[in-house]
Specification:
Distance between the termini: 62 Å
Shape: elongated
Radius of gyration: 27 Å
Structural class: alpha+beta
Strand order of the largest sheet: 6-7-8-5-4-3-2-1-12-9-10-11
Number of strands: 19
Number of helices: 16
Length: 549
């Protein structure tokens, strides 16, 4: 605990119980099989037992864990175990009561030890004890911690000191995994390495004859990004795809704005696609603003088997059928996971957001027939038409007296209507770089623009007075960065079954996505140009198909 304490988040900004459970259901449905409640301190929530009980009802969720400071654990653990809690992590950085009080700014060491023994008494095995090792503070206690594992079924996890806002990280304070291991081997040369579990973040060792074992979390000296399958949600509802990344996406705000499951999946897919293959080096991380772990409330882990890529239904904006291992998923991707150790989030993003491009690329839908490809600048070639092309020099939205009127489509047959439109936003070098690196103060411009485009397509009849309301069966908005022009290229497509076309929906979607990018970037530059808003194709109408070549 910092000397000055920590600022408390207003209650209205925190996720409610129902919001936590809504997000949990969404992630479990998509293949997450382990959820850990962390914090801050989760056991101070009066509804924590109820949350655990309701999580326990989720089909497919195999593990419900908690990370706690342990002070309230002995009192609450019997209720939590009955509710379905089956994994415990206890944070404890010292075995010296006076030093404990100095670190956490309060008494309570004996309550923590009581909680550890209560967990053992109730059959938890192992009970994980997390110890952040800092030079000059507690590195002299490593052997004492290891000695606890002789008679107790503990997994003592030594964690390399990591930089977060407010913890005054200094490289000289960090004790590396190799240094810690050498200290242990000097005392116990028979220390033997245990096999690593799939997607494990820990390197585990055991002393023959001891009931428990020790582990090392080597985030700083030997990263494990290649096998990481973790996501985190902060107490105020922001999704973090990397513990060391400062990029966050608010799921809370979209939940409260009434976002659908499909829209939430699009947001999550875009965030996952932005996850890097590995985090920056320790010195770069220490210079990056990154909110502390005390603000994290949910820790999500996909199952340990190689991640199946979500299959999709062609009729919906994004119909993900699940991430659990299925016989139908690509053996080639599974082999890639096993042999190349690509992060599951990277593979997931390849399917959700397209492959082959190192640039940021967002798509609200993908399927086997419309696999996302890089957008290229459209040439100014003349439009090509196919099918019947009756000439018309009359405006269809005027009546006989020249007044505006809505076209009567009651006598037209229902056919599948598909339209695609595009727009280009020339940002300029400064705004382009900030968008590319996701460093805008307003947030992720591409995700916000994508959602705005989807919403605009659905609301077109409310924005354009004489447009008919169309029940869209599919909306897709794709954005790609064009570094040669410092531009964002937007492509929107819409599909519906009905008597009228959807080109206005596609054009509105592309235009509003472009306007949203302008709004997100206007504080950085006013020299932003919106252009090339045009219809690319239209099919299914009585007057024939249209394709801009």
């Amino acid at each position: 605990m910092p000397e000055e304490g920590v600022p408390l988040t207003p209650r209205a900004e925190l996720l409610t119980t129902e919001e936590i459970l809504t997000l949990a259901r969404l992630f479990v449905k998509e293949g997450v099989d382990k959820i850990r409640l962390t914090g801050g301190e989760p056991l101070i929530r009066p509804d924590v037992v109820d949350i655990v009980a309701q999580l326990h009802q989720l089909e497919g969720l195999r593990t419900i864990g908690i990370t706690t400071n342990g002070i309230n654990l002995a009192r609450l653990l019997p209720q939590l175990q009955k509710a379905g809690l089956n994994a415990i992590n206890i944070s404890l950085d010292t075995l010296v009561p006076a030093k404990f009080e100095f670190i956490v700014r309060r008494k309570g060491f004996h309550k923590v030890m009581e909680g550890i023994h209560k967990a053992i008494e109730l059959g938890y095995n192992p009970v994980k004890v997390n110890c952040v090792v800092m030079r000059g503070l507690n590195e002299d206690e490593l052997l004492d911690f290891v000695a606890l594992t002789e008679g107790l079924p503990l997994d003592v996890r030594f964690i390399e000191y990591m930089p977060f806002d407010g913890n005054k990280w200094n490289f000289k304070k960090m004790v590396s995994y190799k240094e810690m291991l050498d200290m242990l081997r000097q005392q116990w040369p028979e220390l033997e390495k245990l096999p690593e579990e799939e997607s494990s973040t820990a390197k585990s060792f055991k002393i023959p004859g001891f009931r428990g074992h020790v582990s090392f979390i080597t985030s700083m000296s030997e990263h494990f990004c290649g096998t990481c399958n973790r996501l985190r949600i902060t107490a105020d509802g922001n999704l973090k795809v990397c513990l060391f990344g400062n990029s966050e996406v608010s799921l809370r705000d979209h939940l409260r704005a009434g976002a659908s499951v499909e829209e939430l999946l699009a947001i999550i897919g875009a965030a996952v696609g932005r996850k890097k293959r590995q985090h920056a080096g320790m010195f770069s991380i220490s210079q990056t603003k990154n909110r502390p772990m005390i603000l994290i409330v949910l820790f999500l882990r996909l199952q340990d088997s190689p991640p199946a890529i979500p299959s999709t239904c062609s009729g919906d904006p994004l119909c993900v059928q699940g991430l659990r291992h299925r016989t139908s998923f690509s053996n080639r991707v599974a082999t890639l996971w096993t042999k190349c150790r690509l992060p599951w989030t990277y593979l997931l993003a390849q399917r959700w957001l397209g492959s082959g491009s190192p640039q940021r690329h967002y798509s609200s839908h993908s399927d086997s027939e419309t696999h996302p490809k890089c957008l290229r600048p459209v040439s100014q070639a003349p439009a090509a038409r196919s099918g019947p092309q009756p000439a018309s020099d009359q405006l269809t939205h005027l009546d006989a007296e020249g007044r505006a009127a809505m076209v009567d489509v009651g006598g037209k047959p229902d056919t599948e209507r598909v339209a695609m439109a595009s727009a280009v936003v020339l940002l300029g070098p400064v705004a382009f770089r900030l968008v590319q690196e996701n460093q805008l103060k307003k947030g992720d411009a591409l995700v916000v623009a994508q959602l705005a485009g989807i919403q605009a397509a659905k609301l077109t009849s409310q924005l354009i007075p004489l447009c008919h309301h169309v029940a869209l069966s599919h909306v897709q908005v794709r954005l790609e960065l064009d570094s040669t022009r410092h531009a964002v290229v937007i492509q929107a497509s819409c599909r519906a079954q009905g008597p009228t076309g959807v080109e206005m929906e596609a054009l509105t979607s592309a235009a509003v996505a472009a306007l949203t990018l302008y709004d997100m970037c206007k504080a950085v530059s006013r020299d932003i140009v919106l252009g090339e808003i045009k219809l690319l194709s239209k099919t299914g109408g009585q007057r024939g198909d249209f394709h801009r070549s």
